[in-house]
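Box 3.1 A note on notation
Throughout this textbook, protein chains are presented in two layers. The first layer is the amino acid sequence; the second is a token string describing backbone geometry. Keep the layers aligned when reading.
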Amino acid sequence: MRTVCWARYGSAPPMGQQVYETELGKALRGHWSIEERTVLPLRAERTTGARRVPLRLVWSAPFAVARAVGSSLYGGSDLVHRLDLRCPPARQPEVVTIHDLPPLRFDDEGSLPGWAARSAREAAAVICPSEFAAAEVRELLGVETIHVVPYGIDAERPAPLSGAELEQLGLRPPFILHPAGATKRKNLDGLAGAWREVSAARPDAMLVLCGPPHPRRDELFAGLPGVRYLGLREPAFVAALMGAAATVVVPSLYEGFGLPALEAMAAGTPAVAAARGALPELCRDGALLVEPTADALAAGILETLAGGDAVEARRTRGRAIAHEYTWERAAEETARAYAAVLA
């Protein structure tokens, strides 16, 4: 059993990428010895076992300096798997997972280290969760060979929240759920515009928002009727909330995978998703794909709320598609990449 050092960038909230890291790690541990290294900026909140590094300095340093820092962090492992492109590169053989590249497409998504593209090109293997993400990495970073390894999803879904639990949260059915962040690519502008139309046509419906606090969300939805913000919640709670929702909406302009859409399909909850990024590739005919405009999103939500044979067919198809995505399959494909590098 060869030792793989997992290098995480630990300051992000527990959402899609962190779910990938946690669940893939569980599935891989039966086959590989994994040592975790969580890399944090100096000013980040202290986390048990994390290595605090002056990352801003490392990100602007020459590639050789960044690699020396990485080598000191990762020890003598046979292989390093950087789960985030912002983690310093290593001298050992490397696998790098690149989920997507929003910093190179949107001005509110932070930035990448100056050596990011070179470190990706010099890695022994690059993994992306979708063909869309792989195309982005080829175009923007110049990486030629990429392993596409989709995320998985737990086969066992939590029970939907009960009526009493919903009441305690101040919710009533039917409600539409948006469980995501609030940066520009999440397209909350389009969703806010759509909600004005939906709430006018269906005043009985509610819109439930989950995700990290952000002033953009506050401003866009202030004063709109029937909106409830529940904050950043644990994945298990969000999954149970999805099971009780009438619809999950994913209006994003850019997603490297789109885990909320997959989770909705697995829960048997009809999903309305923007026909952008990796969402068409992931959802196929298991969700209603629409243009990411306010009018199109509103029409899709209202169509789904109305129900009918087409909605039921998509819901059934979505469940079947979701069953194709397992963490065991993701672990097997990742392990093949490891073995090829070490060979």
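The longest strand covers residues 33-41. Residues 84 and 155 are 26 Å apart (CA to CA).
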